[in-house]
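Entry:
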Amino acid sequence: ATLDGLYYNWPAPAIDLDGKNYIIIRNFKLFGGAGNDGIIRLTKNDGASVGVQILNNEIAFGQYTGIYANNSTSNITISGNTIHDVVTGTYTISSVGQVFSGWTVSNNEVYDGSPNSTLRGTASDRHALGGQDINNSTFESNYIHDWAGDGILDYSSSGGEASNIVVRYNRIINLNDPISQNHHYGIALTGTNAANFGTRMGGWQIYNNILSNINAGAAGTAAGDGAAIRLKGNPNPLIYNNIIRDFISGTEITLVTGFDVGIQITSKNNAFISPKTGGYYYYLPSSAGGNATIANNNLYYPDTSASDNLFRWSGSNSTSFTDWQSDST
């Protein structure tokens, strides 16, 4: 079925599919949406959704989320939409083992719209695109700007998977909020500490993205706010051909407490430009150890002699590129 070209404004989900399959939603103006559901609700109570396409809509002015799923979905396409004045652009929620697989999220524009929208709703999450337990999916060619929280985020629940994610060709510009109440990660993988975290988080590729002006937020720099790329427990992410500028940390890895996994970053052909005050090109945990990074053909600008242009690995900071180079592969 195809729903084409209507206008909807109502204090409830504008379109409630709740488990329907092979629906195309396109060319709508969808304004409204109450409570903790989305303006478009893919799933909640009545089973999984398969093969839904959400194309070329304007989705705005919801109290919580633009596109929402609280039950399993697969082969979902979200493309060409403008999403604004919502707390989160997309949100998958996993509470009893739901699976969100085969999502293609492409060519969307997501922005806040006004400072007041940063205070909308009650949820602590503020990502533009992503959610919980999304796997085997692609986020590409999206434009996220002037956003009060994170750019693209995937969160693993205690038993869920957030593996085999491709993030490419996106522009993520100006993550900030006026009262620093939210986190600001450009591209992020995080989750609940649990067994097999590394196995369930592997296979990430992050390439050909532009990330700029990623600001510190609610937790300050200690919790990674202002990280352009922040990955938790990912065993070997591939990070290449990205332009990253004006950030607190260019690439940050955090370990999974009690369930640490072997970590190695492959970082090639990236440009890290102008860290903010107190900023890091790389920020690695103390137990990652030497040789935790394969870092080849990257640009670090300006020179690394200042305290605002640091490398951190093996539990220590260095302003010396020579030290970093000798301890990397």
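The two ends are 54 Å apart (CA to CA).
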